[in-house]
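A sample follows:
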Amino acid sequence: MDEPFHVPQAQAYCRGEWDTWDPKITTPPGLYVLSVLLSKLFLFKCNLSILRLTPLIALLSLPIILTRLLSLQRRVRPPQELLSPTSDALAISLFPIAWFFGFLYYTDVPSLVFVLLSVTSAFQGSHTLSALLGLMSCAFRQTNIIWVMYAYAYSQLRAVRYQPKSSESEVKLYDPPALSTTPSDLLKILFSVPRVLPLIVYNAVPYAIDVSLFAMFVYWNDGIVLGDKSNHVPVLHIPQLYYFFAFATLFGWPALVSGPGGPFRLLNDVKTRMFGTTKRTAITSLLSSAVAVTVHFFTIHHPFLLSDNRHFTFYIWRRLFQFHPVVPYLFSPMYVACAWAWFIRIG
């Protein structure tokens, strides 16, 4: 959909016109620079078909990167052959949105590749490389700075959890399983954090440089987006978190139902968490009411959403959410149920 903006910009760079910039483009020029490098390396012409090779190559690399990342996350040995991705890595690579944008000249898939490489490097303890790859990912999507911080935080949590120790007394981070955690455990977790700071502060330096550079960019640019700032204004959008829970459940249901006990066990666990006791029923009612209140006050009707019928969200919004004024509020308990399902599955 945005190729009419991205393609001419890339072609201008291919012609050496580095001072040319379309003010409608909101993201940094990482995609165009990568295309120029590929065109110089392989002596390609910068026509539309060749430019689309950039995201396509990124799409084809996803199974390889995900195989490595999944192996590190599960703490198992990855396949010896680089070009032998696992079946689950292939399945994740077929995620509909990534697959769709892999065939268009767009920033999404190359941005995703550099984010995954950054997280993978952090898991391997290569934090300088991880920060560098994370910074490169921000050249495609500046909001990837959030994933840079995630790569650091998650890798350090894992490093502290799995650090070699000779006795249980050396465990410095109090980290009980989420499903069995009580309110009193939250205080114990908080009080244990200072004990692990000496272990994680040194590795934070490369990522802190990335965050500092990002802060300098925002100050210089007077905002996060580069162009078309009137249509890309940062706002508090609480319901987007609810949309994420619903979206993740719709596309991630195989991961949900593949846990111990299958779908019936999961449904029963969600029911118990929401309505198992009078107290839980009251809490669920309060949570659903709070969700409904935020839906009322923070739902955003962006003009692009209702002006372009090439989006699936156009039809979801017009035919579902706008079917009746009460419909958006009826989804509140469903959002709570989806959040519980993921908490139970991951916890």
Observations:
- The CA atoms of residues 215 and 224 lie 9 Å apart.
- DSSP finds 18 helices and no strands in the chain.
